[in-house]
Amino acid sequence: MQFGSDDLAKYTFLPEAGDFIRAQGIELSDLSRPDYVNVVNRARERIVEAITKGRVSDQIAKNKEIEIMSFPVSLVLVRSTNLDHLMSLYAGAEASRVEYFLSNERNPRIIEDIFKDYIGVELEHTSGKGHLSAYYSTTSNLFLSLPPFRIPIMEYLKRAVGLRKPEWKLVNRMVSNGKVFVTQEDIIHLIREEIKAMIYQRLKDTKLAKLPENLERISKEIIKMAPPPRESFTILKVGPENYPPCVREALKLLEKGENVPHYGRFLLATYLLRVGKSVDDIVALFPKAPNFKQNVTRYQVEHIAGLKGGRTKYSVPSCKTLQTHSFCFMDPIKCRGISSPLQYPADRRRSRMQDEGTGRGEEEEARKGSQPNSNRERERAVKRNRRQTVDWT
Ligand code: SF4
Fold first, then answer.
1. What is the value of pTM for the model shown?
2. Per-residue pLDDT tens for 219-237?
3. Does residue 101 surpass a pLDDT of 60?
4. Domain range for 87
5. Of 344, 348, 363, which is best to mutate to test ligand 1, by the most ligand atoms within 8 angstroms of its C-beta?
6. Can you give the pLDDT at residue 1?
7. Which atom of ligand 1 has the smallest separation from the CA of 245?
8. Tell me, what's the pLDDT at 353?
9. What is the position in ligand 1's atom list of the atom closest to the CA of 322?
10. Residue 81, in any domain of the structure
């Protein structure tokens, strides 16, 4: 289907939004002209919103063209900082905006098309196509509405395998002709990570070239404004018997040769690096994982360790993040009151605080310790930024 400017202003990541700009024949150097001041301002605003609020607002400028054009300009600006953690933060903030519009999208054709063409999933809206829209529930003795979308069972399983809540289990789903019925919220939950990954990839694919002076100025401003990477370099002495339940679950799944969802793998790599394991130690845990490719796993672990890509060392995800991604297996006693797997077990943290009389947890100490490194990293990025510039794509 043909997307209109209203749609492109909402789903700015669509390639059609890029075509829209290419059709205007705008060059990167043109962005210093007064005609594009609103585009550049909105691009800057998108990034500031991402840094300060964690999401890009869903307000759309009256002039849709400004909204559409500001997205690729924002990508150029974020890419120019060469800060990997900022790219990740920005991709997440733009993905939240897309999620908002998808949740409120009233045109099922748009949802079907985005899924088919950009996520590669044959999603089907069921109403008005001769499909069942209700079923008779023998439990309640009532006719109940069926969720309005259907997704092929394999596509569903690929994404729901890491989701622990009972409602995601296939036995708790309506299935018909090899397709699983899902609500609009369900499908957005299922592809949340893919949207972020798609935007992150767009950022990584943005080529380096010389920026006009006004963009160069904004790029430097963003580098100063960007939060330091949330990372900690202190090696903690934690034996396997004290690994938190979420880490133990990831190890158990790997041992059984079962799939560990994305956040589980990310947790495993970041946590084990923090407790002093080497990249080799971590890669050696994965051979039984489905579709294991040694070079891919090694690259991913090295990337997380800050040895590849943007050289950012990634921090251990918080308990809240792991809960959001259904990868928390909370121990009601030992996990009580903690906000990071690094603080597990809670008793150990408390006794350590009492022993040392510091009143600080490990996380806080580690953060304090890592601050100078973070600042150094930021300064290095500023220097890199002076040497590198980006290309308009
Ligand atoms: S509460 Fe935190 S440490 Fe405990 S299992 Fe959940 S994510 Fe892991």
1. 0.58
2. 999 999 988 765 445 566 7
3. yes
4. 5-104+193-225
5. 344
6. 65
7. 5
8. 39
9. 7
10. yes
**Cα–ligand 1 centroid distance for 186 (angstroms):** 24
Same domain, 199 and 325: no
Query: For strand 179-182 and strand 124-125, is the pairing parallel, antiparallel, or unpaired?
Result: unpaired
Let me know whether 142 and 256 are in one domain. no
Task: Please report whether residue 388 resides in a domain.
Answer: no
Q: Higher pLDDT residue, 10 or 347?
A: 10
Confidence of residue 245 (pLDDT cuts 50, 70, 90): very high
Place of tokens 């920005």: 90
- Ligand 1, closest atom to CA 323? 7
Bigger pLDDT: 377 vs 11? 11
Quick check: is 173 in a domain?
yes
Helices 84-103 and 37-53 meet at what angle, rounded to 10? 100
267, 270, 319, 339: residue to mutate for ligand 1 pocket, most atoms within 8 A of CB: 319
SS (H, E, C) 201-263: HHHHHCCCCCCCHHHHHHHHHHHHHCCCCCCCCCCCCCCHHHCCHHHHHHHHHHHCCCCCCHH
* Cα of 333 from ligand 1 centre, angstroms: 11
What are the tokens at 22? 């290419």
How far apart are alpha carbons 223 and 153 in whole angstroms? 44
Query: Residues 194, 192, 330, CA angle at the centre, nearest 5°?
Result: 120
If one residue of 242, 324, 329 were mutated to test the ligand 1 pocket, choosing by the most ligand atoms within 8 A of its CB, it would be 329
Q: In the structure, which protein residues have their CB atom closer than 6 angstroms to any atom of ligand 1?
A: 244-246, 319, 322, 328-330, 335, 338, 341, 344
Q: Same domain for 244 and 217?
A: no
The domain tally of the chain equals 3
* Ligand 1 center–CA 367 separation, angstroms: 19
97 & 121 share domain: no
64-73, 135-144, 197-206: which is most confident: 64-73
What is the band of 77 on the pLDDT scale with cuts at 50, 70, 90? very high
- Give the pLDDT confidence score for residue 371 in this predicted structure: 36
Report helix, strand or coil for 373: helix
The answer on 268 and 150 residing in a single domain is no
